[in-house]
Automatic annotation (TrEMBL):
Keywords assigned: Isomerase
Domain of life of the organism encoding this protein: Bacteria
E.C. code: 5.1.3.14
InterPro entries attached to this UniProt entry: UDP_GlcNAc_Epimerase_2_dom (IPR003331), WecB-like (IPR029767)
Family as reported in the entry's similarity comment: Belongs to the UDP-N-acetylglucosamine 2-epimerase family.
GO molecular function: UDP-N-acetylglucosamine 2-epimerase activity
The UDP-N-acetylglucosamine 2-epimerase domain, residue ranges: 23-368
The protein, known as: UDP-N-acetylglucosamine 2-epimerase (non-hydrolyzing)
Organism: Mesonia ostreae
Length: 372
């Protein structure tokens, strides 16, 4: 069988990389090619380099100020050429980006079977997160095999009348990537990690922050930055590290409000190895990222999630994640409570990770081999 894996953004690349590597062990059964849309050029390339993946097709579609309409049209049009040339049996897409949705539609039109990794996450709210919720629902409609990370995501798919035999619970492939990378970062020489060591103090507790979601652009980021400023001033003995997303709608307010505060380090987005290293060093993580919410519980790090609802309720239920939205007061209060209340901190950091055991890719491949 011929497999085509298509992805375009940093998180998709991190979560698809272990599958690319696992499929490389099965060349007797599969011919596998990788196509990148490069929806996020720079952040994607960092991941490809770390996992040593050279795409077979590179659509290089990122444009300045790109809009979703043009991007969708470009992906569908350009992918048609790749699908005609390679004629894959299976097209693998991941998660909920515009690359995911447009690839799924293009593959559906071309008659390839669609395998959706990280299937079945839902908020059931059309606009939240935008456009991810609709991207994954639309992808789910045309998918043939749904690889759901948890039983919760499987039950979401069953509610949409997806056949149970087309759903496999695998765990999230991000844990496969994280476990392998956490081991590897202990032994590699990495310039970004050396730079971080030179700016950070080993004596000070570290809060790691990331944020990029479209729904938080505007007022959301202003409130988030106000909270970070208050925490930094209230606790001069902690250090906050914030790798700032490249989107100007994030970069501008963050630099403007937090640029001058001495115990806040605003840095460029990090390559995956340095980010994994930094997660391991941190006391707690404040984020609106999906992937980070899934990774942090594996490392025993409490997470405050700057969203009002989440398609990842498993960690909230397990007690390793608290939703704080973008309310300045709530972000400050929950952070201070984790910093000041040791019992509360230990309670949150000691829970188990509900997102898998690092063997998701093995399960995906086992399922496909059984289809032969
Ligand atoms: N990440 C990274 N460098 C950074 C920030 C995040 O490599 O500076 C990784 C992180 O470990 C996670 C993924 O990127 O695996 C999350 O990406 P993002 O937050 O952009 O997207 P989301 O998960 O919200 O879709």
């Amino acid at each position: 069988k011929k497999n085509l894996l298509v992805f375009g953004t940093r998180p998709e690349a991190i979560k698809m990389a272990p599958l690319v590597k696992e499929l490389e062990k099965h060349t007797n059964s599969f011919e596998t090619k990788v196509c990148v849309t490069a929806q996020h050029r720079e952040m994607l390339d960092q991941v490809l380099e770390f996992f040593d993946i050279t795409p077979d097709f590179d659509l290089d579609l990122m444009k300045p100020n790109q809009n979703l309409h043009q991007l969708t049209a470009d992906i569908i049009t350009e992918l048609k050429v790749v699908l005609e040339e390679f004629q894959p049996d299976y097209v693998f897409v991941h998660g909920d980006t515009t690359t995911t949705m447009a690839t799924a539609i293009a593959s559906f039109y071309s008659g390839a079977k669609i395998c959706h990794i990280e299937a079945g996450l839902r908020t059931w709210k059309k606009d939240s997160p935008f456009p991810e919720e609709m991207n994954r629902q639309i992808t789910g409609r045309v998918t043939d095999f749904h690889f759901a990370p948890t039983t919760k995501s499987k039950s979401n798919l069953l509610k949409e009348n997806i056949q149970e035999s087309a759903i496999v619970v695998t765990g999230n492939t991000v844990i496969d990537a994280l476990l392998e990378s956490s081991e590897r970062v202990k032994h590699i020489q990495n310039k970004e990690i050396s730079n971080l060591k030179s700016i950070l103090s080993e004596q000070k507790e570290l809060i790691l922050v990331t944020g990029h979601r479209r729904e938080n652009h505007g007022q959301g980021f202003i409130h988030i930055c106000a909270a970070l400023k208050e925490i930094a001033l209230e606790k001069p003995n902690i250090q906050i590290v914030y790798p700032v997303h490249l989107n100007p709608k994030v970069k501008e307010p963050v630099n403007e409000i937090l640029g001058e505060i001495t115990n806040i380090h605003l840095i460029d987005p990090l390559g995956y190895p340095a980010f994994v290293w930094l997660m391991n060093q941190s006391k707690l993580i404040i984020t609106d990222s999906g992937g980070v919410q899934e990774e942090a519980p594996s490392l025993g790090k409490p997470v405050l999630v700057m969203r009002n609802n989440t398609e990842r309720p498993e960690a909230v239920d397990a007690g390793t994640v608290i939703l704080v939205g973008t309310d300045t007061r709530k972000i400050v209060d929950e952070t201070l409570s984790l910093l000041n209340d040791v019992a509360h901190y230990n309670e949150m950091s000691g829970k188990h990770n509900p997102y898998g055991d690092g063997k998701a890719c093995e399960r995906i491949i086992r399922f496909l081999l059984a289809q032969e």
